[in-house]
Amino acid sequence: MSNRQLAFILFGIMFGYGSIGLPKALAENAATGGWVSILIATLLALISTTILVYLGMTHQNKTFYDYSKELSEKYTATILTLLYIVFMFIMFTLINKLSSDVFKQTILRNTPNWALITVFLITAYYAVIKGIDTIARLCEVYGLIIILFGVVIHFIAFTQGDLIRMQPFFVAEDLANYFDGAIKAKLAFSGMAIFSAIPFIKKQNHTIYIYSAMMLLLIAMLYIIQFESSIAVMGIDSIVFYRDALFTAIRRVDVPSLQFLRRLDAIFIISFIISIFLNITLFVYGTVFHLSKLLPKVSFRLLAFAVLSLSFLVCQLPMSFDEGANLLETASLAGGLILNPVNLILLLLSKVKKSDKKVC
Amino acid sequence: MNNDKKKSKSDLCSPSENIEEKLRDLRSMLTHAREIEKSTQTLVHSLQERSINYGSYLQQIKTENKFIKNIQQLENPNMGISVKRMSVARKQLFVLYIQELTNREMLSQFLIGPILKYDQAAPLDIDILHNSIINLDDVTVDSAKEKTLDYILKGYSVIIVDDNEEEYLVANTIKIEKRTTQSPEIEQTLWGSRDAFTENINSNLSLIRYRIKDPSLIIYKCLIGERTKTNVAVVYIDDIANQEYVNKVIKKINSINTDGILETGMVQKFLLNNTFDLFPQTGLIEKSATACQCILEGKICILVEGSNLSLIAPKTFFEFFVSSDDNYGYMYLGILAKLLRFISAFCYLSLSSLYIAIVAFHFDILPPQYALAMAVSRATVPFNAFTEVLIMEIATEILRESSIRIPKNIGPTIGIVGAIVIGQAAVSAGLISPLVIIITSLSTMCSFVIPDNLVINPFRIMKFMLLVFTGILGLFGFTMGLNIIFINLVSQSSFGIPYFSPLAPFNFSDLKNFILGDLTLAKKRPGFLKTPDNTRL
Amino acid sequence: MTKKYVSLLLVIMLPTLLLTGCWDYHDINMTNISISTGVDIVNGQIEYTGEVAKIAPAQAKGNENGGGGIGVYNFYAYGKDLEQARAAFDAGVPYPHFLGAARAVIFSTSYAKQSIAPYLHRIAQINDYRKTILPVISRDHPAELFKLKVESDISVAFLIEDMMSSLTKQGKAIYPTVGHLLSDDDIKTIGELIPYVGIEEGSIKYLGLAVLKNLKMVGTINLKDTSGVVYLLAKKPSITENLPGIENKNNTFSLLTSLKKRTFNTDYVDGKLIINIDMNFDATLNYQYYTESTDEKKLKVLEDLVAQSIQGKIIKIIAMSQKEFDCDFIGFAKYFRAQHPLIYRKINWEESYRNADFFVNIQVNIHNLNLADPNARTLYFK
Questions:
Q1: Residues in chain C whose beta carbon is closer than 8 A to a beta carbon of chain A?
Q2: Does the global pTM surpass 0.90?
Q3: Is C191 in the same domain as C248?
Q4: In angstroms, what CA-CA distances link B304 with B193, B227, B265?
């Protein structure tokens, strides 16, 4: 796997569902200074990504279960891997459910939820059984498409917005609020956990640190463009009323000179669907991969099928959109709070082992 | 037979009492028997007449020569082996050949003629025949008795000297019905050479040799097909083509185990055996110049005896969109043409689905004027949009399929009928909205823009899949349908090369070379081919 | 083997599950395409009117103008509140509604005085309504508007929308959308402006702007006074200013102004709000009624005169907003908030705005005489 592909995998898993509610979350907590929050969140994400990448790089060609077994013992490793599995399972199940809700509310009013969920899951199954190579290639191509569409759509939206609605850009007194906003933006920056399921090869991936940092920066830039363009169109006072803030902002743009593309929804919906598809697929892959490490005897396809069926059943639990959204936010925050310290401890352990070896 | 009858006559005579009566019976039986005899005779005669073929003559030859005996044993009466028997200088000679496969003019002029004219004192033997008499270039001496029949079946003439049981002569007198080199039919270019491959493998190979005079051009030949024994040649340049792919191809070809190979397409079928891969991973090439270009690129060209198409492997998705003249034509036009081809492929796949997505699901993504115009255009149509599009798509597929089968001289007529009946009449009857006619005909036109039509065939099927997806879930179904096609596309690999390179995995310089497609700018061969010698300039 | 069965199961499952219903499938010609809606209060009841596209097939229209035609028919529905009127309307139409093609929503003055917020929020939350739709307030009943036979456009709504968008393109009007109104309303401290239309001499005319405070109509600005608003709010205001001749009193200079730069600087000094408006214009001398020679000095005088004229118009509008309507409909609050966010959080904006000091500084440059040379002379006249 090349560095580029790894970086795009990071893009694929991060950029997607989190972006739709991000403008609202930032406008609520950080008002027009939301971009500062995004940068802070990027910094936090960079730290946890680097820890994971470092772990992967010190343990060549191994994934989380293998090296955690090496650093601790089998029992602990199983529990830690289970943590990852549960985290990723909750993430993709909720993302699937909530985004299906969003699609149901916006473009397909009468279609039952389960139909959308099933289509997502089956397509994800198809991609996952094709293996990580296929998913990586998919991420590369889709990533380019999403970035291109995103930049074009939001620059067009900029031209329709008011510059004054984006100001003030920075208020020093609000710095504490900006940190609040950064924590609220956690959801949009969760997903680096996928690196726990991908083996690294030192010869190929020695510059992966730079690549992943650049990719995080790119994601941050896209989020900033999205945030600024949507508040330029709607204003922070209005955007806080909409859970699908980004989509609402896009629907308030109408550029007559673009003729039949004057309404940007269609392009936006397509790029949004594929970005959510990438989110789900990668989380599913992570879940199934870790599970297959724990149960090496069961075939990958069967595990994938079982995981997706379970996810489908979980999606059928009665849950309102708000409950789901809150749960997702909590899950992403909890995931960050639990998994990052775990990774950090493993990192320290591997450092200790290394120095032990040197002493010996 | 006659003996039998006489016997029965005597049987009847001896114990008789009422002779008169029995005599009468006997007479009638006799006439009856005569009739039978007559009819059997005519039957035998006609049978003999029919089987006065060359084989029967071969059987009649009485000789102790082991080669001839061997053939006599193996020969089946309808194989059609001809024998020319000659007695020259006290020696008995036999020339065995099959008339249909042999160039008989050559045979009589350069082989039989000189032999019969032989008037030297020295007794004729294989050496003299070989060295001083036969006027042919390709004559060899062989001694394997089991190979004689094979030689004859391939069209060689086998010359056997009656008293020589050690060796025989084999002369190449193969005659092959062949077309002369003609201009290409399916792979047409505006500025390009016009010599296409023919059904003759040797002349095809000569076309390649003629273009590439490189000593490291390798032609690996093998026979496949238990019964057809088809010659298959694998052509590549040793120090350019990656040995890994070459081995893979050769291994796959050698492992083909079938009774007959008649077309290149059959070989292709055996090379790719994953049924779930939707897209073609090898290219069929008709023009020898294009084949040479691919070989120079580091690809492997497979020629099959009796087929005018050559197979190119490996081939990636993007290469289907390149026409051979893009590389040396005006560069900017090439870029535009490639862009147009991609747009066309996308349009062909998705235009009708997008129409359904807009007309039946998300009319709000269109500006008001467009929405109204669409509604007006559909006002009289009794079907819903999905049915309407489905009918039109099937109708165009029918037209397309029929236009392949229609004899050439009535083709244009049918085209006009199709256009008038389906286009004009359906619209004026209010059955189909004009917009759908525009969309289906435009998308059909789009499908002919792609230079290598093989890649369009999967699209023809997937178009309908996409249509159903869109009909159920609108734009969401459309996107997910495209998604599934796309996953299949990127998951494929052609002999180990990712099918979607150079875009995924991304390689900037390959992509640049692909887009610019200019010979002078592309200094390196495509990286994904992993060629040992990757510099072009 | 299990693998094969799993994929087979999936292949069979997907279509069967999905084909059980094409839930959202609905052809466009099987909808009522709304072109516009009007909301009014008549006899204490909500009157809900509007135009729906009449989709005529191409043949029915005959050959006169080739293609098919789009006609409209009007509808009327009444009810105690919006929902009842809506239900009454739904009870009499053949197909479900499609609101995405609506061009304008017309409120009557009486409804607007009560508040247009309910209807705007309806537009905001109903998915297929475009948020870029044009809201207007009509002096006359919307029902009467819709009854008019429009010669110059497809229907009333098309006329109003085309009229407003072309005026805005020329820089002579502003075009607020429902989205803008909602965003501005959410700021709470500023008012809004909506085009005001009515029937004059049997046809629909743009009469000026209606001022809304918290989405309730508080008054109107006449068409001739709106140029002050346009100078302050339009993206590219371009308004003709007519000035009397300097030497020849009969003469009139017609100048076309176009905005080069506009800045609003706000400040808060000693508990007083100060707003500086700096504007820089280019002007073109379109024509004169009678040719009067011009020189640099004269142009300078002209420039000053134009600047004064513009300044007067702006000051008039600001006075209106401070005194007459007591509402910051220009939206200075947005600028103040952007420039002094911390002070904004502390003060009561309405209060401060009422007593704010404005400094309007206008600069005009004329360096375009529209290719005319008023100073020309020949051998025969000087």
A1: 2-3, 6, 10, 13-14, 17-18, 21, 23-24, 127, 130-132, 165, 177, 179, 182-184, 186-188, 334-335, 337-339, 341-342
A2: no
A3: no
A4: 22, 15, 9
